[in-house]
Amino acid sequence: MGLIINVAGRLAGRSALLTRLAGRLVAHELRHLKGKPVERQLLVYDLPETQLALANDLRVVDTILSDRAGTFPKAAALERLLRPLVGGGVFGQPGGDAVKQARRVFLRALVRIPEQRVAAVAADLTRAYIAGWQRTGRPVPVPSELSRLTIDIVSEASLGARFTAGEGQRFVELFFEYHRRANPVLMLLGGQGPAAQQALVERMGLAAIGAEMRALIRRRFLAPLLADPSPSAPAPFAAALLEAAAAGLAPDTSLALDAARQTAMLDEIAVMLLAGHETTASVLSWLLWELSAAPHEQDAVARLIAASGAGRPDDRDGRIDPALARQLAALTQEALRLYPPIAFLLRETSEAVSFRERPVCAGGYIVVSPWTIQRHRALWSEPDRFHPARWLAAEPPAAMADRLALIPFGYGPRVCPGKRFAEIEMQAILRELLGSCRIARTRGRAPNPLGTLTSRPDYDFRLQITARGAT
Ligand code: HEM
Known about the structure:
About 55% of the residues lie in helices and about 10% in strands. By secondary structure, it is an alpha+beta fold.
């Protein structure tokens, strides 16, 4: 592993071709991240120009993500990696007052979307996707179809609009390619300082992909909004963003947003679409992969769904039988534990610090990994096993004595603001899917978690999804 990292570090940034080669060398390491070395409470690693600390000690994690979050902003390398896509949007921003303000705007916009709307949009669209899959009768390419579905859900619920099928497909393809190329590990290895890292991002070839994705977002979502700022379709998130963008302008000029304000809106819409769909699609892809090998588990959930009367026409407000809610939560909780979509929370330290008496230099990278913590043998029994029933036991898993043992949505001031949205959405999708379909494996290798921007599956694996009544 050390040798691979050294070779990758030397190749990265030399040319576009060598950068891609280096990226391949370190792209698929997530599944190897197990066992003693990565379970150490604290691992400090010397990089060519700085240091990297991986913290599994939950008290240190608390310090980094919450107690002293101001000392440990998100790493600038991450912002550079995401900038071609989300510009100055909140997700990539390191920290400070600007982030507080951006989060406030984002959260205010998010809470305008009623929970019932999220549940109803997710249920309706899932039904439409299932009908489409069943028309073709062919195995379903699960990661890309779930990506298209979750983009549609997040855009319809928040912006009142959707990509056309062709645009959605293109968007998903482009984002998958972005993932392949945008490699945070290379950013840590391939030279420090803004100029070196910017050169590396250019060699990764992210600018053209990001520009095409942003053009799609601008055309489908931003341009119509600016042309008609009181859209007939309900678009609560968009309306709140418009208000924030127009803040400080006189009412009669509020529609003439200058280029900078338009770009700021585009950035936050891009964050909403990307952060709001990819994570959910990734975790649901893994969940369906696991369930495809567990027909009895599927049957048990389907029985509960049938007994709860879900799917009736009058059941559109997302109310849900408590036993079913617990069962669905156990599934998503276990998938989030085993496959946290954001496997690494990347920070840097703004001053020299010492953790567990190990010094880390100023500017050093600090990694908190939901992946290693949530599979840690000291915290979880049978940590690598997909075992939803652990969440249904009368006694909660021992690890849950500590809130920080399960952090798929992060923790502290940068915790995911979309948690509730995601939970409602996943519950609605699963209710439709597991209530009406059986899911089975087809031939093909098991997917591996990508381990770049997210832990999404490394290829578009296919599952047979058939109507329950049909067999
Ligand atoms: C299963 C689904 C999801 C998971 C596991 C997830 C996970 C995360 C994590 C771990 C972070 C924090 C990253 C860090 O601290 O470095 C984050 C941030 C964020 N998430 Fe989510 N997320 C999910 C769904 C969503 C949804 C549905 C939305 C929007 C509707 C959303 C919007 C955001 C935004 C805007 C941020 C950035 C916040 C900031 O920079 O301060 N996420 N998410």
